[in-house]
Amino acid sequence: MKPREEISPMKTTASTKPLFLVLSGLLAALPAPAFAADELSAGDTAWMLTSTLLVLMMTLPGLSLFYAGIVRAKNALSVMMQCFAIASLVTVLWVLYLYSLAFSDGGAMNQWIGGLSKAFMSGVGVDTVSGTIPETVFSMFQLTFAIITPALIVGAFAERMKFSAMLWFMGLWVTLVYAPVAHWVWGGGWLGDLGALDFAGGTEVHIIAGVAALVAGLVLGKRKGYPGTPMPPHNLMFTMVGAGMLWVGWFGFNAGSELAADGVAASAFLVTNTSAAMGALAWMFTEWLVNKKPTVLGIASGVVAGLVAITPAAGFVGMSASLVIGLVAGVLGFYSVAVLKQKLGYDDSLDAFGVHGMCGVWGALATGVFANPAITEGAKGLIFGNPKQLWTQAISIAGTAVYSAIATFIVIHITKLI
Q1: For the segment 89-134, what is each residue's pLDDT rounded down to a tens digit?
Q2: What are phi and psi of 134, to 5 degrees?
Q3: Alpha carbons 44 and 47: distance in angstroms, whole number
Q4: Element (H or E) spanning 134, and its range?
Q5: CA distances from 389 to 62, 205, 367, 369, 383 (A)
Q6: Are the CB atoms for 289 and 251 separated by under 8 Å?
Q7: Whole-prediction pTM value?
């Protein structure tokens, strides 16, 4: 056999050199490949695919188990069914028109709502890029947020809404509330232009869902026998497993919202875990001090409270700020559930408003206080010399909360008519 180098296809001789030059010229004349190799990042895409799976796990099965364990045994399967049905319904509506309303150009109405140019996922193909990831991945990641947000509201009216009415309510709510607010915050709407900071959905997910939960609970009224009849959780094992899945899935929720595998995503990962841990301890010790003993439901709720509060701030704050955010969230969450709800007398079955609404408000305000320009350029909060940011955050909280309250009230009454 001839030596390897003598039969190499890269070796040219005097007889083959003219042919080699001709082929090289033809190849050079060909157009560049059609893919966006200089924009698409395989690493970012892989991370976003992973984050999408993590966020979807938060609803299925995380939130399903978390809620199913807290309700009475006779309603456990009903709550899980509602979470699965919401995931299915919102997925179909998302690809039909919700993605377009949230993330396309609305023309003259762009400050308030997107258009229908991306309805039926028009123009979203295998070669379409959003930043450094395929737009299909971006759309799917955002879909997981649209799924979990209305599912959170189930916690307020659990055990007292017909399944058919729930489907009508959720379909109308994601259309009239979620899609417009998503456009305001992330799609080029007025809150984004105002400079409001919401890294992963403090206003867009937790505040609008928490406020909607409160309105739904007030309009529907109390469960039969509440508060005189004891209604303890039927299976706290389910709740703890669900809380663990929420904790793990939240890394995709927060760190994934950077839409890239970079240092900011890594920082968001760290502060998310820190705030969750601090929220759990703060709720547990507060409950221990007030009621003389800690509870399983308390520490699970504290984890969620810490996660909710860090959500809008995750990509803007450092570890020391996350400790403060988680600490306040744990204490605030406990008092919202144990004291505020009792004083106001409303029946929020699974404390959606106390945990998501109140801690979401705190997290959005804390972002205006602790946002650190060393982590994300241009994000500067009160303690770094920009008091205006706190005011901007307050406007974003008020705007989204008021809109969610009014629109939810209307949607409930439309559902009643249907």
Answers
A1: 999 999 999 999 999 999 999 999 999 999 999 999 999 999 999 9
A2: -60, 145
A3: 5
A4: strand 133-134
A5: 34, 20, 9, 8, 10
A6: no
A7: 0.89
